[in-house]
UniProtKB/TrEMBL annotation:
Residues 1-20 form the signal peptide. Keywords: Signal. It comes from Marinigracilibium pacificum. The keyword Signal applies. This is Uncharacterized protein. It comes from the Bacteria.
């Protein structure tokens, strides 16, 4: 049950709803040591994916480098949740992933990523429904919290100011000087409790799409999670949570790949 709760955090973190093809054995994860890592298209096209994940414990005294990292991460808090809720403290989980999908850039559109039937195929273990206002709600069951999210899609020339910080980072660090062909912005909120305990406060997922190779798409995710509680130390604590998130990448890729193939072919 703990695994289910942690894997839904993984789903939240990497929920661009577009997954690279191939078996888990063929995927070659590359753990990067900095959030500002450069995208290595050659390695990604050869079947690797790059990732970085960082955890900052709430209330912990930070050194200069950790403070610098936290300030960079909180630039993604476009709704100012962290600083405006002065009576709450949050664990911060920041991640960045990059991978290549075996589908052309034209496959990805606002209609595609918002299509309820497609989303349900990518998340077969969860009950996904559409709210009247166009947002989505996910009922997870068991030890994973229910939550809601809204999803917006953007195309050049990217005039919404909420995209400025993300665009600055990807064009300076990830793919220098090149703007993506599409961006999605996903806001996850209204998380339920598990065993009467608060879970996530919210998460923000920015996703950039680039054409790369022949009929392939490079996808880059930057995700900020603000978390109320992590697993207790007696079952492994935050280290266990992060290990399971990383271990779940290939599992999630394989589990949802069939939906991409079915809709692309």
């Amino acid at each position: 049950m703990i695994r289910s709760a942690i894997l839904i955090l993984f789903v939240i973190t990497f929920s661009s709803f577009s997954i690279p093809s191939g078996s888990s054995d063929a995927l070659k994860p590359i753990e990067e040591q900095s959030f500002n890592f450069k995208i290595d298209k050659k390695k990604l096209l050869a079947g690797s994916y790059q990732y970085y994940i960082d955890f900052i414990k709430k209330g912990e005294k930070l050194n200069a480098d950790e403070k610098k990292n936290l300030n960079q991460y909180l630039g993604y808090d476009i709704y100012n949740i962290h600083d405006s809720n002065v009576n709450e403290q949050y664990h911060v989980i920041m991640s960045k992933t990059a991978y290549v999908v075996d589908a052309s850039i034209d496959f990805f559109s606002s209609d595609r990523v918002r299509d309820l039937s497609f989303i349900r195929k990518t998340l077969p273990d969860y009950d996904v429904n559409l709210n009247d206002d166009g947002s989505y709600r996910i009922k997870c069951g068991g030890m994973a919290p229910d939550f809601e999210y809204d999803l917006k899609t953007y195309y050049p020339s990217y005039k919404d100011s909420k995209l400025n910080y993300f665009l600055k980072n990807i064009t300076n660090n990830d793919v220098p000087g090149v703007s993506p062909k599409m961006i999605t912005l996903q806001h996850n909120y209204n998380f339920g409790t598990v065993l009467w305990q608060k879970t996530n406060k919210m998460s923000i997922v920015f996703c950039a799409y680039y054409p790369v190779g022949e009929n392939k798409t490079l996808i880059i995710n930057h995700t900020l999670n603000l978390v109320h509680n992590v697993p207790p130390n007696f079952i492994g604590g935050a280290d266990m949570m992060l290990d399971m998130i990383v271990d779940g990448i290939s599992e999630y890729i394989v589990a949802t790949n069939s939906a991409v193939k079915e809709n692309y072919n």
